[in-house]
Amino acid sequence: MLEFNTTVPSGQMLIIDTYYGTARLGGNDVISTLSGTSVPVFDLVLAAGANAVTYDGGGSAPGITLLWRHAYL
Fold first, then answer.
1. Which residues pair with 18 in a beta bridge?
2. The pTM of the whole model exceeds 0.90
């Protein structure tokens, strides 16, 4: 599970790159906002096939759009 303690303002994107282990919000590094219960960004791996992804924005937070790119070594 990845969990960030940050707010994504309207019109901004939280971009998580598991290959490089980075998280950027509005061009700023936000990796330091990764919660203590989260796995490191490098460790997020989706299994082959279908994966369930959940989102909890709390309260009246809007939905999210996910983009996934297939990559392999």
1. none
2. no
